[in-house]
Amino acid sequence: MPSNAIYTDLSGYYDLMCADIDYRAQSQCVQRLQQLFGSAGNRHLDLACGTGPHVRHLLDAGYLSSGLDINQPMLDRAMMRCPEAQFSLQDMCGFTVSQPVDLITCFLYSIHYSAGLERLQACIASAHAALVSGGLFCFNAVDKHKIANNSCVSHSVRQADSLFSFSSGWHYLGKGERQSLRLRIEKTTADESQVWQDEHPMVAVSFGELIELLQPYFEVQVLEHDYQTIMPWDQTSGNALFACVKI
Measured between alpha carbons, how far is 85 from 187 in angstroms, rounded to an integer? Predict the structure, then answer.
């Protein structure tokens, strides 16, 4: 995740912001994808790991799991959640590992935090260098041509005496390699409300462009964005899972 003020200020609320995400289903899907496409090893690295929920699930499944993030408050919480794991403060667009891993993940569309195509390519190259031969790089992405600028997802969560309302949505101007993720968080306690709003610059890429960036490094499988059933991408949906085997 970026070292962005909203993440630093609200790192304590980050898990509430992601309360509607089924981390268990995502982690189990990754394990199935590794069985289908990857190597048999159990060394795992989670890019942009945030507070470490994917690391926790994969540790519990028997993996030697680790994570990296660019935001130290997030890593502090990840270390509390997963004290047996190794975490490092690194940029996913230029990271190194002490020992090659068998599986690299990058979920919650965090691959788009690369912000530009040059940095995205650097992220892909770093992932390739960090994997064993036949290792799996797995992430989800959104196609810039499928973004509906007036669409957003929202949910609310109550914690103690406060109600938190979260909304997020993609925005793409229709050209170029930049899109944005717009976030809004409102905390209501009794009759008082606090609102945080932010807009993150993200890399905009079509699936065709993304496949072209990946193919020099990986054998690429594009799958439907469905964590319960593994199916080939239908060529029309704007969200997809990428399962990429190092070549």
Answer: 32
Q: Is the pTM of this model over 0.70?
A: yes
> For 14-27, what is each residue's pLDDT tens digit?
777 777 789 999 99
Q: What is the 3-state secondary structure (H, E, C) of the chain?
A: CCCCHHHHHCHHHHHHHCCCCCHHHHHHHHHHHHHHHCCCCCEEEEECCCCCHHHHHHHHCCCEEEEEECCHHHHHHHHHHCCCCEEEECCCCCCCCCCCEEEEEECCCHHHHHCCHHHHHHHHHHHHHHEEEEEEEEEEEECHHHCCCCCCEEEEEEECCEEEEEEEEEEECCCCCEEEEEEEEEEEECCEEEEEEEEEEEECCCHHHHHHHHCCCEEEEEEECCCCCCCECCCCCCEEEEEEEEC
Distance CA 181, CA 46 (A): 21
| Contact between 194 and 186 (Cβ < 8 Å) | yes
Residue entry with tokens 């089924």: 22
For 108-134, write each residue's pLDDT tens digit: 999 999 989 999 999 999 999 999 999
Distance of alpha carbon 40 from alpha carbon 56, whole angstroms: 20
How many angstroms separate the CA atoms of 212 and 188, rounded?
A: 46
> Token pair for residue 123?
């992220």
Query: Around Cβ 59, how many Cβ atoms within 10 Å?
Result: 19
Measure Cα distances from 232 to 2, 10, 25, 110, 213 in Å: 31, 37, 18, 22, 19
